[in-house]
Design goal:
This protein has 72 residues and is an alpha+beta fold. It is built from 1 helix and 4 strands; from the N terminus they run αββββ. The mean pLDDT is 78.
Length: 72
């Protein structure tokens, strides 16, 4: 009884090409993200006073209009 089988050369080559394409796609995506300046560290907050503002992402941000803390 044979427990292993050899994979034809053609199938092995196709498998490696797919892996190479996937790696290339990931590297291109990373390069694009670096060129764009990376992720934004600002969020849009809205206060109960009606004022909407952008500020750095943080666990607590103060409203520049009324000074109320905007805790998440």
């Amino acid at each position: 009884m044979q427990l292993t089988a050899t994979i034809p050369h053609r199938l092995r080559r196709d498998r490696h090409e797919g892996r190479s394409r996937t790696r290339t796609a990931v590297l291109q995506t990373l390069a694009r993200a670096k060129r764009s300046g990376g992720p934004e560290d600002h969020a849009l907050y809205s206060c109960h006073c009606g004022f909407a503002f952008k500020a750095e992402v943080s666990t607590s941000v103060g409203c520049p209009h009324c000074g109320t803390s905007q805790a998440w």
